[in-house]
C-alpha cells in the first residue's frame, strides 16, 4: 500500500518531496546521528524510470543498484517461485549481451558486491564497479531492462530451472530444519494469500514454468515505470545523468502496474506442527506470529522486543534458557518486516535430551513476564544504541546487501523517500515499556500462533555425552 | 513521522476503496511525465548498444593502509585510519589458535577464548554482556587455527568505554568454575548440533583427508565430543597463561582514529599488561600425497551430495601465492570460472561450484567445492576432475588470465569499505605475521605473474592425481555412481561416530 502511495506521489508530476518528510524538515539529528543524512537527488525519466543519485567519493568505486517493484507477492497461484526464477533469467543475456557473460564481464573489471535477490516485496540487482566502469554497468542493466526477451530461449530457461531447483535443495531440503520451516510458513499464510508460497517456490511450480510465463512476467512487471535505478559512489553528476538518459531514456514503458490488494490474514487458533527432522540432530522449537507490516504501528516495538529477548547473553531468553536452566543451545527472536504483513519468530534449539515441549513452557514463561511487566527502559535504550550503530555501519558500503544504495532504495520503495534513515530510527524513540507490554499481550497471543516442533527421530538425537554412545 | 505515514496509508486505502480499478493511464497521462515514451524504438537509434562502452580513465588503485607501533611491554598496536563515519572497530588479536590445541585436547583454544566473555573484571557473564550492550554492541569472538580475535564495532564516542571492557575481557577474565562447566557443556552440544550439518561433516572429513588428524590443522576449533569431554578449567588457565600476553597480542583499531590516538588508548587500557608468551612457531608444512581413496560420509537419502576436492596448499608468504591465486581463480574462483560455468550454467547440476586458495601461517588448503543434485553425483564429480585435467590439456588462455588478473586487482578498493573488514584484515596480517604492506605486495605479485608461471602453478598444484575427494551424501548412490570413475577405493567415514579414538589410535 505504501509503495503505491509513494509511486503516486512520484509520478503524479507533483514534487514528491513536498509531501513526504525531507531531511530538512526532520527534526535535528541527535549527536552521533549527523552522519546518517544521505545527500541525494531523485528524478524520473519520461518513461517512468525513477533515478536516485548520491555522490560519495571516499573510494574510487560506484554502486549501481536497480530495484524492480515486484516480488513473490505478485505471482499468480500455481506459479510460486516465479519472480525468483525470473531473476535468474536476468543474468542470462539480452539483445546485446551474450549468454552467460553478464557476471563474468563485471568480474573481470573488478566488480564487487555483485548479485540479484528476490523477496516477497521486490527484486533487486546490484554491482559495485571501479568508477571508470560505471558506463559498462549501465549498459548491462539497461540492456536487460529493455531487451531481455530478444535473447530468451527455452533451453536457457531449462538450465536455470535446474539451477534454482538445486538452490531449493540447498536452502530447504538439505538445510537443517528447512523442510519443517517451510510447513510452518505455509500455515502462517493460508492460500490464497500471496505470501503462502516460499520465495523460491515449490518443485511442482518450478517445473510448470514455461517461456511464455517469462515473457508475460517481463512485459507486466519489468518496465522502466516499475523500476528504480540508484547510483551511489564516486561519479560526476552531470555526466552520469547524461549516461542514464542515453541508456535508459529510450526504453519503452507502460503505466506502472497496480499492486494487488490483499486482505491481511489472521490466526484464530494455535496451529501446532510436529515435523520429523531429517537433517539436523537437535530439536528445534519455532513459534511464529503474524505482526504489523514494515514501518506500521507495532513494527518498531516488535524489533525492540526481539532484541531484548535474544540479542546478547544478558537477553531474556538467552539468560533463562541457555545460561540459567541450560535447556537450550541457542535462541533467536526476530521481527521479519515485510510490505504486506510481518512475522515475529522465536526459535530455540534444544540441548541434547531436552524436549521442545519443555522449551515451549519456558518461552511462554518469559513472554508472560513481558506481558505482565513489559521490559525495562534500559533494555529499550540499549536496543536503540544498537540500531544506531548498525545503521551507521550499513552506510559504510556504497552498494551490496544493506549498503547505501540499498538503504536509499528500500526507503524509496516503502515510503517514497530515499533518505528516511533518521525518521526510521526516530520510531524507536517512542517505544515504551508499556508499548512492549501491549504488543506482547495483543499481538504475541498464545491463541494466535504457529508452533513448530522439528524433532529428529530418537535414534538420531545426540546423547548427552560421548560416554553414552558406545 | 508515524502520523504522517498513517495518513498516507489511509489515503491509499480510501483511494483504492472508491476507485478499485483505476483506469490505465492514457498515453499523455502525467503518470508517465510530459512526453510519451516512444512505443518501439527504431533499430537504428538503438544500434549504439551493440558495442560495449569503453571504460573511462583508470582511477588510482586505493589500497588500505595499516600502521603499527609497539608498546614497551611488547604489545603491537595496529591502526588503519578511515574517517568518513564516526565508527571504529576495536579488537584484540591473539597469535595462538586451535593449532596450539594439545593432542587429545582438541577444542581447548576455542573453550579458552570463549571463557573470556563469560565474566571479566568485576562482572559476571550477564553484567559483562549488559556493559557491552550499553554501548550498543555484542562482542564478536572468532577462533581459528592460527589465532583468535575478539572485537566490537562502536560509535567513536563509545570507543574508550569499549576498550576498557575489552581490557577486562583480555587481561582480567574470571574463569569461574560454574561458568566453565556451563560453557563446556555448551561446546559439547554445539558439536552435537554440528554433526547434523552436511557442510560441517564435509569439513571434518576434509581436514582428516588433507592434513591428517595428527596435524595441528587436522581438526576444527570446536574439537570432538571425546576431546572436549576431557577439558578442565586447569587446561583453560594453562592455555591462557602459556599463549596469551602482550608480546603475542595486537590491539586492532580501524576507522575513525589515528595511530597516535590508537597508541594512547592502547597504553591506557593495555599498557600495564605483563606476560612472557610469544607467538607459537608455524605448524609444519605437509606434502600433498597422491590420492588413494575417496572419503564418503554417509547421509542416506540426502537430496544433494556435497563434494569437496582438495589438497594441502601453501603458507602465507609463499612466492607461489600470486600465480597460484590466478590459476585457482580461472579454474573456480569467479562465477565465470571454468568449474562454475560447467557445473551450474552448462549442466545445471548445482546452484554453484567454486574453488579457493586459503593460505595459512603453516600450510593452507586449496579446495574445490560444490553441492550437486544427488542423482548426478557421479557425472558432476567426473566434470570436476575433467576441469582439473583440463588445466593441462587446455592451458589457461591469455584472455582467461587477464580477466582473473584485472578482476582480482581492481576489486581491491571495493573489498575494503568497512571498518570491520579493515579490522579483520589487520588481524589476519598479525596472525599470519605478514608485513603491513601485504596488499601492495599482493597487487604487485598478481600484476607480475607471467602466463608461464600461472600455467606451471595450475599443473603443479591442481594436479587431479593429488586431490583428495570427500563426498557427503546418499551412500548407495555414491557407491553406484562414483565407483566406475576409478578415483580410488570408497572409504566410509563417520566423523560423528568416533573421531577422537581414531586419532588416538594412530
UniProtKB/TrEMBL annotation, chain B:
Keywords: Signal. GO terms for molecular function: metal ion binding. Residues 231-408 form the Peptidase M16 C-terminal domain. Residues 278-287 have a biased composition (Pro residues). Residues 88-194 form the Peptidase M16 N-terminal domain. SUPFAM superfamilies: LuxS/MPP-like metallohydrolase. Pfam families: Peptidase_M16, Peptidase_M16_C. This is Peptidase M16. It comes from Corallococcus macrosporus DSM 14697.
